[in-house]
Amino acid sequence: MNKYIIIVALGALSFGMLSSFAKIAYGEGYSPAEITLTQALMGTLILWSIVLFRRIKSGNKLKPDWKLLLAGTTMGSSAYTYYLAVAYIPASLAIVLLMQITWLSILVEWLFFKKKPSYIEVGSALFIILGTILAGDLLELGNANISFTGILLSLLSALLYTLYIVFTSKIGKETPMFEKSALMTSGSAMIIFLINCEAIATSTHLDFGLLQWGTFLAVFGTVIPPICFSVGMPKIGPGLSSVLLTLELPAAVFCAHIILGEKVTFLQIIGIAIMLGAIIYLNIAKAKKEKVIQKEAAIC
User: Fold this and answer.
1) Buried b (16+ CB within 10 A) or exposed e, 234-254
2) Is the dihedral of CA 201, 157, 24, 226 positive or negative?
3) Of 48, 58, 101, 102, which has the fewest Cβ atoms less than 10 A away?
4) Per-residue pLDDT for 297 more than 70?
5) Which pLDDT value is given to residue 155?
6) pLDDT band at 153 (very low <50, low <70, confident <90, very high)
7) pTM (2 d.p.)
8) Residue closest to 249 by CA, chosen among 97, 138, 112, 95
9) Alpha-carbon gap, residue 191 to 73, rounded angstroms
10) What is the largest CA-CA distance in the chain?
11) pLDDT digits (tens, 9 = 90+) for 237-255
12) 145/167 Cα distance (integer angstroms)
């Protein structure tokens, strides 16, 4: 089991480091539109290559669920607004704000699916917000490094990512993992291109350097994490998997500090610890509740 814990953890860590490298790419003159589109296109190419290879080897026919393309547009929109936010604010702050998906998903399920949140969910959400204020150093809004535009873009990215999570949990359940990822990444590339088609058409940065960045980010953000999750998650269960996914937050902050030299204060570390504690507690509580429900169903 320890092997599968490490595999899932590697997937989360792979996700966490992306924003720091995206910021380095901006320093080389590339725009968020160029980076996100190239990443999505290269990810689509790699994933469809894997899908076709597996299908040829197995002899099975493709039976795509085209609704996944639509769900992929939320993933692409989230990725674009997140990378755009990183251009305005520190990468560590961007990832902290993105982690609001935990309580936003609770809110979306309440508003659209009439699933009333429990006291544990409400309490966890409040602690996540408190931790966000501390971790993002939002008490110092006069700080020159803090851009309201960047904050709003990060929160918009979190909302779009929440919709992506909700959509993917409701559709494509029978679609194989690689095929599902390929379809969603295709939808992601389509929406990013539609949003930025004019800027892409007039871009002067469509060179080998951009291809390198896109391939690097696609491998570590689009290909490796799904493979790690599909291999490890079925072996360790949803509860522990959800806990391990929180490693994305400290990984992003650590990379921003080491690679970009972004300052991380003791108060921010306390805030991150509060956020992680609330998210882990919430996921453990959910896992226990699901086990109780399964036992009751088995008895009946």
Assistant:
1) eebeebbbbbbbbbbbbbbbb
2) negative
3) 58
4) no
5) 92
6) very high
7) 0.84
8) 95
9) 5
10) 65
11) 655 676 777 788 888 888 9
12) 34
The per-residue pLDDT for range 5-42, each reduced to its tens digit, is 888 888 888 888 888 999 999 999 899 889 999 999 99
Q: Are 218 and 42 in contact (CB under 8 A)?
A: yes
Distance CA(167)–CA(172), nearest Å, equals 9
Q: 154 and 32 in contact (C-beta within 8 Å)?
A: no
Q: Taking a C-beta distance cutoff of 8 angstroms, is the pair 25, 215 a contact?
A: no
Supply 216's token pair: 């690097």
Joined together, the tokens standing for residue 247 give 């490693």
Residue with tokens 């350097």: 209
